[in-house]
Amino acid sequence: MTNQTVIQNVFKQNNIDIDGEKLQKFCIYYDLLIEYNKKYNLTAITDIQEVSAKHFVDSLLGAKLISQNSTALDIGCGAGFPSIPLAIMRPDINFTLIDSVGKKINFINVIINELNLNNVQALHTRAQEFCISSNRERFDYVVSRALAPLNVLLELCIPFLNQTGYMLAYKGINYQEEITDAQNALNKLYAKINNIQCYNLINNEEIIKRYILLINKTQDTPTIYPRLKNLIKTNPL
Q1: Cβ contacts of residue 15 below 8 Å, gap of 6+?
Q2: CA–CA dist 184, 98 (Å, integer)
Q3: In which element (H, E) is residue 35 found?
Q4: 119: closest CA among 103, 145, 96, 149?
Q5: What is the DSSP letter of 56?
Q6: Is the distance from CB of 150 to CB of 178 less than 8 angstroms?
Q7: What confidence tens digit (pLDDT) does each residue in 10-55 have?
C-alpha cells in the first residue's frame, strides 16, 4: 500500500475530505519529516499510519474552530504540528510559527518552500522575545500542541490574543487535571475557558480521546506577562 493510500484511508476513516493536490502535499510532508528526522530528531512517531493519525489528523481536529481569513500564531511549533496540516487544508489562514530550536525552524522553512505554503512564515525565537508591543494582542488565534502544561501554556499564549481571539490548546485525557492546576493562571491572565471540544481520533481499530480547549481573554493581559523563561518554568502561575 502506498503512502498516499494510507494517508487517504486514515483521513477517510476520520471523515476528513481531501483533494488530490492537498493529499500530495501531505505525502511530501511525510517524506521530508522522515528524512530530516534522522538528523533533527523531530518526532518519535515515524510509521506512516501513526503519523497520519496521531500527527496529521490530530492537528486537523481544530480546522473547523478557526474562522475564515484569520491570523494564527503557533507557539513551540516543533515539526509543524498543528499548523502545517492546518495551513495545507486552510490556505485562507495566515500562520506564524515560532520555536526556540533553530533546527526545527530550518525544517519548517524547507516544508514551506517545498509545499509552496504562501500562508506560513516561521521564526526562530522564544515567545517571550517575540512578545514585543507590535505582536501583543495581534493574533486572532494562538494554537499549541504538546508543548507544556496548561498553566505554563496560558502565560505564553494569552498575551498574543486580540480581544476577540481564541487560544486553541490541544490536550489529551488528563486535560481536567491541567484545568484544575491552571485556575490561578486563568485568573491572573484574565482568561476564560469558553468551550471544550471532544474528539474521537480513529487509528485503525484504536479510538483515541482528544480535546481542544477554547480559551479567550476577558480583558487586556497585564504587561508583566509573559515573564522570563526561568520564572515560567520554576514558578508557574
Answers
A1: none
A2: 26
A3: helix 20-40
A4: 96
A5: I
A6: yes
A7: 999 999 999 999 999 999 999 999 999 998 989 999 999 999 999 9
